[in-house]
Specification:
about 300 residues; alpha/beta; 2 domains; binds 3,4-dihydroxybenzoic acid; binds fe (iii) ion
Length: about 300
Amino acid sequence: MDKIQIDTVLNRIEEATGQHANPRIAAIVHRMVRDLFHMIEDLDIQPEEFWSGLNFLAEAGRSGELGLIAPGLGFDHFLDLRMDEAESQAGIAGGTPRTIEGPLYVAGAPVAQGEARLDDGTGEGEVLVMEGQVKDGAGQPLANAVVEVWHANALGNYSYFDPTQSAFNLRRSIVTDGEGRYRFRSIMPVGYSVPPNGATDRLLKQLDRHGTRPAHIHFFVSAPGHRKLTTQINIDGDPYLWDDFAFATREGLVPPITRVSDAAAMAALGVDKPFASIRFDFTLHADQANAPQAEVARQRASVAA
Ligand code: DHB
Ligand code: FE
C-alpha cells in the first residue's frame, strides 16, 4: 500500500477516539498503532506472523515473562540512559551510576541496623563481605540511609521466585550507622539466566543470543532529602561481565574484589577458607525539583517480613 492509503485508514481509526479519551493514553496508542502499521507495510508482515507475534506476547504475559523480555530487548537500559540525560539537563552530575532494577525485587525484606547476614547458611558459595558508606554529593556520610540489597544464589536463582529458598534469603534492608556505613555478609552470587524454553529464551534464541546476566548484586539506596538510587554492582571476572543480556553493566559499577586469607579475619567470620571482600561507597544526589522523580512506581512482588 502507499503511504497515503495507510494514512487514510490510520486517520479514520484515530477519529474514532471520543472527546473524553485520556489524552496521554490516546497519544501513545495512536503513535504505537501508526508505527506498527508502517512496520507491517515496510516488512511485509504476513497475517500468520502477526497472529503468532500476538500469541507470543500473550504467552509471555501469562508466564510473567514480559518483565524479562523488556530488559533483554534493552528497554530498561534505554530508560536508564533517558533518566541520566534528564538529570544532566537538570544540572545533576557525578554520583554513583544507576543501572536497571530488573524484575526480581521483593518488597518487605527484614530490616537490619548497620550490618546483616543475607544468606541463611544453607547454600553453597564463596563467603562474601561487602561494606562501604553512603554519602551525599559533598562526600559527607549519610546516617540512617537505607541500603536495600538483593541478589541471586550460587545457582543464579532469587528467593521468592525460587520457592526452594527460604523467605527473603539474600534480601535485606540495611540502615546505615552514624558514619553512613553499611556492611553485609553473604555468599557470592552467580549470574541469572532466563528460564529455559520460556518465552524470553525462545525469543533470544531466534536472535542467536544468550539469556545470561553476569553475576551482580542489586541495590536501592535511599535517604531523606535525596534521590533514590537504583543500581547494581557486578562481580569482576565474570565471563559475561561485558556481555550482559540485559545491557546493564556500566563503568563505575565493577568494584575490585579482594581475597582475604588473614587468619584472624577468617576466624572472626567463622570461615576456614579465604573469603571475598568488596568495598563500595554509594553517592546520592540531593532532591531536585526540576528533575524527574528518581523513584519509579511499578508493580513489584511484596510479602510481609
Ligand atoms: C533479569 C534478571 C535479573 O536478575 C536482572 O537483574 C535483570 C533482568 C531478567 O530476567 O530479565
Ligand atoms: Fe538480577
